[in-house]
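Worked example (supplementary).
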Amino acid sequence: MDLLKVKKNDVLLKACLKEPVPYVPVWYMRQAGRYQPEYRAIRQKYSFFEISHNPEICAEVTKLPVTQLGVDAAILFADIMTPLKSIGINVDIVEGIGPVIENPIRSEKDLEGIRLLNPGNDIPFVQETIKILRDKLDVPLIGFAGAPFTLASYLIEGGPSKGYHITKGFMYSKPHLWQNLMARLSDLTISYLEAQIEAGAQIVQVFDSWVGALNSEDYHQYIAPFMHYIFSELKKTGVPTIYFASGATHLLKEWNELPVDVISLDWRTTIEEVRNQHIDKALQGNLDPSLLLAPFDLIKKRTKAILDQGKDKPGFIFNLGHGIFPSVKVDTLKKLTDYIHQYTRKDPVND
Amino acid sequence: MDLLKVKKNDVLLKACLKEPVPYVPVWYMRQAGRYQPEYRAIRQKYSFFEISHNPEICAEVTKLPVTQLGVDAAILFADIMTPLKSIGINVDIVEGIGPVIENPIRSEKDLEGIRLLNPGNDIPFVQETIKILRDKLDVPLIGFAGAPFTLASYLIEGGPSKGYHITKGFMYSKPHLWQNLMARLSDLTISYLEAQIEAGAQIVQVFDSWVGALNSEDYHQYIAPFMHYIFSELKKTGVPTIYFASGATHLLKEWNELPVDVISLDWRTTIEEVRNQHIDKALQGNLDPSLLLAPFDLIKKRTKAILDQGKDKPGFIFNLGHGIFPSVKVDTLKKLTDYIHQYTRKDPVND
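After joint prediction of all chains, the assembly is encoded as:
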């Protein structure tokens, strides 16, 4: 398939599809970010959205960690709020807080603004960035989007939340409005990811960062049908899909029923425990990002334990259980990437 | 034992000890709080610590939900930061944020201030409040304290955190200092709970609210020895103990090895799943507090499912999976309490 053609390094694509790989591929969530001195310098000059809306700068920021760390993929630099902002929702990224929405959703009328994307008008900069990157990268480019529950939590709470009480209260007490909201956000997500794929994204990851706040009964009833719809539509593109959440080990059996290719795990479980639960998807994960502040010997020990459980079965991608944070050192990630590649590289003689 | 004598209602005490009960006892975390109009009126006049340091007002606030909701226990009105504040740590409770520490712990020197409590000098108001309450209550009085990891997270981060990266970085990279800090916080916690028990607290709950951020390997290595020590010391008092965390289903097997009487569950698991894991402690939980915003029929349905799994085996206490929040209606909790009592009350004829 043409979309999946990669000039050189296709290890991540193979791992997503559970094909044999020469070594365990690795990339890191939030691998472009404030932990990089170069990124901090760019952010002195531009706001988050100024970077993500300028294809040349955005491509540079997206590509930097690939060169710097030697990872096996680039992930589009953007925010999960990008598609919402692009259809006119008033959202800002506030430093130290996160996305903040000016007019939180409360009633049916508030849903009217949530419409399908018209890529050429709404996100030309995303498609342009992807085209530039496809030309420059020799690793696959991952596109991404937020999942409906996680987007809804920002839209309803008005910003980040601890307990998601307003969101869940809305879900429980206005089920028809909830279905309407989730259907609109699902269509938006699909149109956003299709636009990325059309422009050249070769893998897409769906971030449902906060859905672990729900128990499996709620997930099954209020969320799963929409995730099933999203991944079914994406399947038609032929591009591999990854589903991520934090603190969602209790939802893995639900996730295993979805038409998604890869499940991204956090550190609250182990690859072995997940395999013992008969989860048969490709897996991605699952180092605690806090460990990046540990002495390198401890990072290596914990990484080795993950690799020992993951590397011998097809379909394993090394990643963190959540994003990199600002106080991590670039050098730590560079050494970690090298270690993962070296430790898992198959001896060509025995291949 | 004299400490355990309750004038009238000892149902909760019996449930903690897995003895037969006439109905499932219920109380709610943060049952004294901003959801009550009476509490809001008192908070107009006094700060949080002004209330908790004034025995007459504190006893009134502690007792109010017992009268108002008909619950089977009172829980001392205090904050988990109370013992730290009482030994001179500069902590404030900031509205909408939580506990904020002026000088976060970074080095060995910063640990020196963490010392044992001298109850008569440091927390006379806590003991006085408990004495007033024991005289006025006809339900058991629950004392409580924060657990070392959760206290350490505030002390190290300087306030609430999302990822606990600084705390975990400290734990991984300064293991001796971490042990020192945890030992000091363990001794503080024990002395604080012993003082509450001496004054009349009949059950104690240890809040390890954020420890679910660790995986079970870290919990086993860095936390479990201290929790073992705390619960072993408390066992000598004869007072039943409860251990609470949020998002910690993955730690239940570790918890089952501790000398604690009751494990408090959040909504991300079910009583049935926990029993199937051979967790044999008494259990407390586990309604999602967000459900308190749902129509009452749905609250009842979800509560019934919990009760059906919990009520027929000795050792079950109904509670929420986390604390009540301000937008909950008092009337909802009153109706819920009545429903739980009615639905689980054993027919005296069949007794």
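Two points are worth noting when inspecting this output. Chain B is about 45% helix and 10% strand. Residues 2-344 of chain B form a domain with the TIM Barrel fold (CATH 3.20.20.210).
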